[in-house]
Amino acid sequence: MKKGFGSIEEYLEYVGRGRGDAFGKRYRSQFRDRRGTAELAMLAAPSEEEFEDFRRVVEAMTENEKANVELLGDEQIREIAQRAQADMANVSIFINGYVLAKKKDNAI
Asked: Where are the alpha helices (DSSP H) in the chain?
């Protein structure tokens, strides 16, 4: 059985599973902040708009960026967000979520 995420594309697919379903909306409401965009909830149950940001980010990334996500700095993430025409905060949350998921996989 395969463990973890082998690529950021696989992580995108995983994150996208919770979008738009009733359970995801209920789950997300429990983590709501003033804007309704708490980080945990965003990755567990993204809105369609957030998921489209994530999808555009993955498409905008170079192969080198995809292979070395954990090495991306703030300026590189900002450039990716600009290329993808995506919200910088959402891009950071998505990329950091992927890096944390990869680290968790390697720690177990």
From this structure: 8-16, 22-29, 39-44, 48-60, 63-67, 74-84, 88-107
